[in-house]
């Protein structure tokens, strides 16, 4: 009997491993590389493509608004004494046929400012496209890391179920020899059932994460399942101050609001130009009977006089308020980025410390406690509930380790989104 217990104990210690040891890959399918998924999203994600199309469309606007309006060509015919066309054309110097054109001429500088405003709008949309790409990349990274964590949890539950089966056999053997009560066996079976429940919940989470990833990749729901590579820790190499310095140049959302400020400044300049007149040039050639009368030539120059200052004053005031609005939005965007960066940095550094505590203290200590309890239970010096409690402590600490590791990597992904700095 002692040899039997020793063999089971040896098998048990082989199975129980620290969480930092490499696990076996998923039994079905091959893990997808994160870099491949990000490349696929850049080509297929609808949000990215829509933002890109909006930017590309806006790049066609500057040449439209900075070009003179189309000239107007006019044809005139004046009859005398009859509504019929060309009636009296040869017997009256009042009847004529005319051909002319006119051209609107905005006040000098208006077209340039309109084109400049459209160009800054295009630059803002380009940054928004970049922001959408960054956001989608961060979402895919977060979903991928969550999927890796949930799949790791499934591996742990599968291993735990095997360990509990070993513990149940030991308890049954001791029960048959009258050393313990049936309660030990029932407790082991109860924990097995609980693991089955937890496994079902984890499988549900895996399915949800795979569905969200497929949506981001624009894959059909019936496409093959996605498997993630195992989580690995990425060291934090930059300080908080170094990351903060990258916000203004690295965050596309901040850059987009900066472009919006430049656009509104141009709109203010354009509103000032509206206090000046726009012009129109017309030229007309008129022809009567060429055998009797000479042709007429008429040049007309007109101007639109902005005498209703109430309208121009309101336009200028509106443009200035829009400029103030864009500045405030920019300041809010910067502060929001600072706040998010601070939270993500704290989460990453805190998780970094916790991971060290798990690897160097809690996990080895809990394993040692459980191993000692296993030997004591075999010798009859410890009850099964105490052994089961120490075993569950090991499982809980291992799950917390992988949870903190996933949170650490997700925080780094968000920091990359905000700063544009590659941390991996």
How would you sum up this structure, described in words?
The chain is of the alpha+beta class. The protein has a single domain (2-419), classed as Outer membrane efflux proteins (OEP) (Up-down Bundle), CATH 1.20.1600.10. The protein has 11 helices and 4 strands, in the order ααααββαααααββαα. It has helices spanning 2-15, 34-44, 46-58, 61-65, 110-176, 182-217, 240-244, 247-250, 252-273, 309-378, 384-419; strands at residues 72-78, 96-105, 278-287, 296-304. A hairpin with an 8-residue loop joins strand 3 and strand 4 (296-304). Helix 5 (110-176) packs antiparallel against helix 11 (384-419).
What strand order characterises the main sheet? 1-2-3-4
Q: What is the average of the pLDDT values?
A: 84
* Unreliable runs: 1-28
Number of helices: 11
Quaternary structure of the protein: single chain
CATH architecture: Up-down Bundle
- Fraction of residues in helices? 55-70%
Largest sheet: 4 strands, antiparallel
Which shape, going by the Cα principal axes? elongated
The secondary-structure class comes to alpha+beta
CATH level 1 class label: Mainly Alpha
- The total number of structural domains is 1
End-to-end distance: 53 Å
**The CATH homology group name:** Outer membrane efflux proteins (OEP)
Query: Remind me, CATH topology?
Result: Outer membrane efflux proteins (OEP)
Strand content: 5-15%
Give the H and E element order: HHHHEEHHHHHEEHH
């Amino acid at each position: 009997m002692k040899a039997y217990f020793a063999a089971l104990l040896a098998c048990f210690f082989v199975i129980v491993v620290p969480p930092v040891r490499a696990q076996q890959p998923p039994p079905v399918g091959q893990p997808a590389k994160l870099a491949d998924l990000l490349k696929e999203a850049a080509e297929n994600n609808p949000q990215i493509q829509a933002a890109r199309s909006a930017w590309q469309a806006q790049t066609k606007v500057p040449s439209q608004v900075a070009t003179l309006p189309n000239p107007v060509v006019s044809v005139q015919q004046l009859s005398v004494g009859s509504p019929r066309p060309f009636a009296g054309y040869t017997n009256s110097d009042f009847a004529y046929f005319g051909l002319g054109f006119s051209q609107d001429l905005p006040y000098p500088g208006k077209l340039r400012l309109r084109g400049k405003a459209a160009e800054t709008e295009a630059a803002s949309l380009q940054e928004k496209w970049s922001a959408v790409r960054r956001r989608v990349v961060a979402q895919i990274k977060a979903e991928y890391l969550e999927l890796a964590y949930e799949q790791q949890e499934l591996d742990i539950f599968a291993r735990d179920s095997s360990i509990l089966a070993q513990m149940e056999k030991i308890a049954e053997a001791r029960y048959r020899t009258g050393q313990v009560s049936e309660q030990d066996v029932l407790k082991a079976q109860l924990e097995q059932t609980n693991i089955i429940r937890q496994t079902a919940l984890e499988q549900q989470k895996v399915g949800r994460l795979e569905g969200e990833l497929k949506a981001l990749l624009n894959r059909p729901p019936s496409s093959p399942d996605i498997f993630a590579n195992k989580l690995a820790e990425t060291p934090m190499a930059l300080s908080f101050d170094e990351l903060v310095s990258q916000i203004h140049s690295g965050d596309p959302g901040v850059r987009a609001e900066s472009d919006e400020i430049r656009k509104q400044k141009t709109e203010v300049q354009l509103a000032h130009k509206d206090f000046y007149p726009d012009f129109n040039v017309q030229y007309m050639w008129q022809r009567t009977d060429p055998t009797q009368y000479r042709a007429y030539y008429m040049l007309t120059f007109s101007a639109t006089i902005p005498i209703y200052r109430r309208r121009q004053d309101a336009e200028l005031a509106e443009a200035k308020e829009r400029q103030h609005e864009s500045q405030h939005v920019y300041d809010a965007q910067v502060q929001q980025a600072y706040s998010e960066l601070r939270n993500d940095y704290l989460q990453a550094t805190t998780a970094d410390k916790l991971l060290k505590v798990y690897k160097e203290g809690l996990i080895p200590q809990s394993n040692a406690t459980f191993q000692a309890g296993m030997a004591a239970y075999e010798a009859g010096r410890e009850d099964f509930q105490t052994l089961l409690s120490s075993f569950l402590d090991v499982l809980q600490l291992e799950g917390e380790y992988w949870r903190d590791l996933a949170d650490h990597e997700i925080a780094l992904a968000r920091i990359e989104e905000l700063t544009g700095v590659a941390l991996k």
